[in-house]
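The instructor's notes for this session suggest beginning with a concrete chain rather than abstract definitions. Hand out the sequence below and ask the class to guess, before any prediction is shown, which regions might be ordered.
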Amino acid sequence: YLSTMDSIWITAVMTLVHMTDWSLESLKKLKKTVDKYIKSGTKESDGKDKTLKITFKSAREFAAFQKVLRKLDDATKHNHTEVLSTSLFTHLFSTYDAFIGNLIKAIYEKNPELFKSITREISLSDLLEFDDLHTVKMSILDKEIETFRRDSYVDQFHTLEKKFGIKSLRNFPEWPKFVELSQRRNILIHNGGQVSDQYIHVCEREGYQFNNKPQIGEYRRIDMDYLSEATRVLSKVGVMLSFTLWMKIFPKETEK
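After discussion, reveal the predicted structure:
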């Protein structure tokens, strides 16, 4: 888990800086070509408006100039670094989701008594499809984990507290930040990054304090500092959750 988190951050460091430099260099080259034509033009005025008149030697030269303008327009519209940083940020949560699912499965497999707490029904026809009881249990556990993953991250912590009898699972300094990260992940995936009323409400309810409270409809982006903080917080949450659950359920292994 931590290795993958580190890999995501290293990928960001290696690619985002170079991509930014490449984008700026491309813009500079296009601008240099446009500036050459602007300098060769003559300014005209009709008393109200000022215009720049550029004379081209041929239709081919004019077509080449138009092509440069289109490229410049495209370059200012496309934000490659934003696409990549958002992808890497959401991948942090994909990694977290997979890890927590595997953690829960490992705990249940190590302590089969926990299966008795699952209240999920299965039809007789489905039951007859399985070869043995172990396969039935693992199939039911997979469905339980799948249901767990569909809940919000706040609800997931509530579920874990209730299931394993731990009241203080959310009592750590980064909890409000973790909630904000998860809510930003939601608006990036489902709302194109636009702030929603739910984003603000959940963050404030869970104790997150905005430096500058965003307005509904405002866009939230991912920069390098934010991605770095997200990597650190999600890494820490995964580790703390692992140790807390493991020591609660397998206290004899605490020292180990």
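Then share the key points. The chain has a mean pLDDT of 87. The longest helix spans residues 2-40.
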